Amino acid sequence: MRSAYKFRIYPNQKQVAELEDTLEICRNLWDTALADRKAAWEKRGETRSYPSFRTNGLISKHFPS
To answer: Does a structural domain hold residue 47?
Structure first.
């Protein structure tokens, strides 16, 4: 039997700001990757996957580390 756990967090203001920044980066990366996949399909009829985003520099653009 599977069980689920719920946790409530109470972040301080600094943590809230960091969480919002992280989620914004993730949302932008997802939207960019989705737009890239859609364009590749519409223009060339090809599918894209995660490894192709890494080789195209899409991830390094959002995560310059």
So the answer is: yes
- CA nearest 40: which of 53, 54, 27, 25? 53
29-52-28 Cα angle (round to 5): 5
Q: Is residue 21 part of a domain?
A: yes
**Global pTM?**
0.63
Give the CB-side neighbour count of residue 32, counting CA atoms within 13 A.
17
Count: domains in the chain: 1
Q: Which residues touch 25 (CB under 8 Å, ≥6 apart)?
A: 62, 63
* pLDDT of the residue at 2: 82
| Average pLDDT value for residue range 22-39 | 87
Task: Indicate whether 26 belongs to any domain.
Answer: yes
Helices (H) and strands (E) in the chain, counts: 3, 0
